[in-house]
Backbone:
């Protein structure tokens, strides 16, 4: 009988300590300015998509690279050579 009480107490203490450890880990990770998109993807994968975290992910942005027009190069040597020709 005493052994069962000790086992139950051990299980309860283990669950509490595990919960406290996870809490401290999450608190520590939040203070480190980590990659939010990566962790959202990880947690979505762990929950098999049961929890949607799309609102935490940044929207994808399209970056357009502008083509330099003739004469707009920042390289002064190229500009000088073009003028000499």
Residues:
């Amino acid at each position: 009988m005493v052994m069962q009480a000790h086992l139950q107490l051990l299980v309860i203490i283990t669950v509490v300590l595990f919960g406290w450890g996870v809490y401290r880990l999450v608190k520590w990770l939040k203070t480190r300015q980590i990659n939010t998109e990566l962790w959202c993807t990880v947690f979505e994968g762990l929950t098999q998509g049961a929890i949607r975290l799309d609102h935490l992910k940044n929207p994808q942005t399209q970056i357009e690279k502008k083509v330099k027009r003739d004469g707009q190069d920042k390289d002064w040597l190229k500009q000088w050579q073009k003028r000499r020709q």
